[in-house]
Amino acid sequence: MNGFPIETVLAVIGIAVSGAAFVREFVLVGRKKLGYRVQMDVPITEMTSAATAGALENLLANGEGGTWDRTKLSVVLVRIENSGSLAIEADDYTLSDPARPKVGAHLNFEDREVIGCAIAETEGVPLDNFGEDSGMGRRNRVSPNFGIVDLPKIALNRRQHYKVLAVLHRTAGTGEPAEPELVCTLRNGQIEKTTSNDRPSAKLLALTSFLAVVVVAQGVLAINTRTAPPVDCASGSLRVVGSTAIAPAIGKAADLYAATCTEAAFHREFTGTEDGLIAVTRSADPGSILAFGDGLKGESYPELREQPIAVSSFSMITHPGTGVSDLTVAQVRALFRGTVTNWKELGGNDVPVVLVDRVAGSGTRRALESRLLEQNRRIFPYVSCVGMARGGPQCEVKTTEEMVDAVARLAGAVGYAETYAVRPQGGSEVRRLALDGVTPGPEAVRAGRYPFWGVENLYTRGAPPGESLAARFADYVVVGKAKTVLQEFGLVTCQELSDPSSCRPPG
């Protein structure tokens, strides 16, 4: 439409109208509403059966040896409810009655006196709120002529209610009696007479219809002005495989890419860095797969190409029962060389050390060995941690998730994992340790103060075809818009580092 931003105009109108409605309904009018409605107001005129005769005779007795004139008796049922959008608290009632400080509201019956009252039904309101000391009661005034039921300051959540049953005696007037009236003042709220008709009001219907028209108009305009996907989009199917540590970040990046580039499909197989390298090596189509992992690919995969993506912080973690919160790098070396076997030797509790290790080929394990252990550690026979009820001196896991689970489960356990992954989640309780007094995290890595870190890399078999989904997504992750996603998961992108030489796998 000649560049005129009609979509923006419609959006502004919709927001303005809905905002004005919100302010009127929830700010000016008030979100707390105490509603009431009369559900029954019927006269008692005759005994309907012998079965009720005794009860009615007792009702007609006025306590002074006589009886009430049953032609002037009536039974009224009034529903009191929270009809607003916020809970009503006991201190929201501001009715001023010094003689009755516990009373929050009155039910008034003009030209009728109250000869009995009771709570007939409650929804979410305990009956003991209406006990003897609650303030509830009945009384009658001569001038003006009113019967009154005093109601206590009852807290009501949304849609909670209670019902008041009153037996009344007509004291003046003829014909239809005046309807009962609820008298109450509510802080930041109002009293309203409700009905059983649940249909929305005409104003609400009009507002909803208007906003629906705006939304439909915006949708039509969006369809008519839809453009092709961005030029950096590619179509096809891509397998993303490799490290379990970086899996959450790459998975979210893939979701965001696919949301924009709708003809791209991703299949995730994050089972470990080594598995990812093997999958890329064996793939028949190098342009259909990307692997992500920690550290150098090593000499076993000479045909693979690696591109640094980001620097990741790793953490030493322990079972909370070890009694330690900080280790030195020298102590970590002593643990993995087998010279420390009980936590009391490091100032902790008298608990045997259980080393939870990643399997050989893990990128996270390679980062530990190169950054902290100086490639000098004790090699243990393979024992799986999965399913162990009690730890031995050492066991191994395959994934980051299994590492966190094993350390949380096995008394005396110590392990290591990507820092973001070891935040307490899903009920797992592990203790993340400082190293040489430095708390792990991206800021410490960026400042060069934290020793346990590694480089996350992208692996391909040669260069993928330039227009392929593999090439486009690789650019998206390495130098593109996925930067914010990586940062969200605690990674420091290579572009952020002042010293680019730091962004390479540990050697």
Question: Can you lay out the helices and strands and say which pair or pack?
Answer:
Blueprint: H1 6-28, E1 32-44, H2 50-60, E2 73-82, E3 103-110, E4 112-123, E5 137-141, E6 146-152, E7 161-170, E8 181-183, E9 189-193, H3 202-224, E10 236-242, H4 247-260, E11 264-269, H5 273-282, E12 289-294, E13 304-318, E14 326-327, H6 329-336, E15 354-358, H7 363-371, E16 394-397, H8 400-409, E17 413-418, E18 431-432, E19 434-435, H9 442-446, E20 453-461, H10 469-478, H11 483-488, E21 492-493
Parallel strand pairs: 1-9, 10-11, 10-12, 14-19, 15-16, 15-17
Antiparallel strand pairs: 1-2, 2-7, 3-6, 3-8, 4-7, 5-6, 12-20, 13-17, 13-18, 13-20, 13-21
Task: Tell me about this structure.
By secondary structure, this protein is α/β, with parallel strands linked by helices. The chain is 25% helix and 27% strand. Strands 10, 11, 12, 13, 15, 16, 17, 18, 20 and 21 form a 10-stranded mixed sheet that branches. It is elongated and about 110 Å long. It starts with 5 loop residues before the first helix and ends in a 14-residue tail after the last strand. Mean pLDDT is 83; it is low at 47-52 and 225-229. This is Substrate-binding domain-containing protein. Residues 229-478 form the PBP domain. Keywords: Signal.
